[in-house]
Specification:
binds S-adenosylmethionine; 371 residues; 7-stranded mixed beta sheet; VC0802-like; alpha/beta; 9 helices; 26% strand; 8-stranded mixed beta sheet; 2 domains
């Protein structure tokens, strides 16, 4: 069993992201000050970092959904093993006397208990520890808690964390005021842009941009813009972070040279209008251009293409002609790399250098890197 010392100068964190994209997100966490970042489970990275990384990740990390501060981990074969992890915690470093909390548990594996059992046992253990340590009972609020304690039980291992992000995942960006029918997750768009890895002077194009998520995330990454999540992250209420650490550190890199050349196109003029509106809310409208164009016909003038193709699932449209013509436009262009999210990569007839299996709902999709 190990309990993490919250007075130490490095803490242990878990970060959640899109399954399959952990290595790219881990690289971003490392850039932001993390070390030893590794995939712990599908969609979950573990790493170490100084406490100040919490504010930095919430301001700049474009690929992470939640940042969880690890409190304790250990082997578990019973509920008692999990509550023993809570007994070892210094509750006053985590919860203020008036702060409410909720426990959420995720369990995978063969156990004699279910997730709700973990939630009530850990909740009770927190109440008991708080009573023993400071004589007060913290309020439980399952709907709108100040802090969420998340417990992960995977086979024989349990990890107790406090969620520094809170109720709402960071993939929900405030800029997305105009929603397209099938928008890609901004965190996934950010990972795709990083997979494309363009040089600062290279032209980046999304020929089927919908409401503009890929170009917006690309511009925000290139310009090192802050994330604007829909809700204030929970870390500001976390007792273990002092005021200095919770103040958002300015992490901006100095960018020299011309602004990035990033463009989006879509056949649907309404999608183009939505993309412009979202870009305005994201504060990157001056950097981006969005135009109406048919990807089957318009020649691709780009060094790098990053796009999310229609799957043809929700509509009856035959996507074969679109895929065939788009692949032809790509082949005749001088684009050096394309990063494409699709459920029908087979229709492109292009050999990927890397293929990352993904899921959207029940649909199996993939990100293809084509060089
Ligand atoms: C999966 S959506 C892209 C979603 C986008 N990544 C977003 O976050 O909103 C596919 C887009 O392809 C566009 N599209 C379909 N056929 C097209 C064509 N021939 N040329 C350009 N765009 C096309 C659709 O209008 C739709 O916006």
């Amino acid at each position: 069993m190990s309990t993490h010392d919250l007075t130490a100068d490095r803490w242990r964190f878990l970060a959640t992201t899109n399954r399959g994209l952990e290595d790219i997100a881990a690289a971003e966490l490392t850039e932001l000050g993390g070390s030893d970042a590794e995939t712990l489970y599908p969609g979950m990275i573990e790493f170490a970092a100084p406490p100040a990384v919490v504010s930095r990740v919430h301001a700049y990390c474009r690929q992470i959904h939640r940042l969880l501060l690890e409190l304790a981990r250990g082997r578990c074969s019973s509920l008692a093993d999990i509550t023993a992890l809570v007994d070892s915690l210094d509750i006053s470093r985590i919860l203020g006397p008036e702060q409410s909390f909720a426990v959420r548990a995720q369990r995978r594996g063969d156990h004699s208990f279910e997730s709700p059992d973990v939630e009530s046992a850990v909740g009770q253990a927190i109440v008991d520890a708080s009573r023993a340590q400071r004589g007060t009972r913290p309020p439980v609020d399952l709907d709108d808690p100040d802090l969420i304690v998340r417990v992960f039980v995977r086979e024989r291992r349990a990890i107790v964390t406090v969620d520094t992000t809170g109720q709402y995942s960071l993939h929900r960006r405030r800029y997305r005021v105009a929603e397209h029918a099938a928008p890609i997750r901004p965190t996934m768009a950010a990972s795709m842009y990083r997979l494309a890895d363009p040089d600062p002077d290279e032209r980046v194009v999304d020929p089927l941009c919908g409401c503009g998520t890929v170009p917006i995330e690309a511009a925000a990454t290139a310009l090192d813009r802050r994330i604007e999540p829909v809700h204030e992250p929970a870390f500001r209420r976390l007792r273990a972070l002092d005021a200095d650490e919770s103040a958002i550190s300015d992490h901006r890199r100095q960018r020299d040279g011309a602004p990035p050349d990033i463009r989006g196109f879509d056949i649907d003029p309404e999608a183009v209008a939505d993309a412009r509106e979202n870009a305005r809310h994201a504060g990157v409208a001056d950097t981006l251009s969005f135009e109406t164009a048919d990807a089957r016909q318009r020649p691709i003038a780009a060094d790098v293409v990053v796009t999310d193709l229609p799957f043809g699932v929700r509509t009856d449209d035959d996507i074969r002609p679109l895929y065939a013509d788009f692949a032809e436009r790509l082949a005749e262009s001088d684009c050096r790399r394309a990063v494409i999210h699709t459920a029908r990569g087979d229709l492109l007839g292009l050999e990927p250098t890397r293929r990352i299996e993904m899921r959207r709902g029940r649909l199996e999709t993939a990100i293809l890197v084509i060089d």
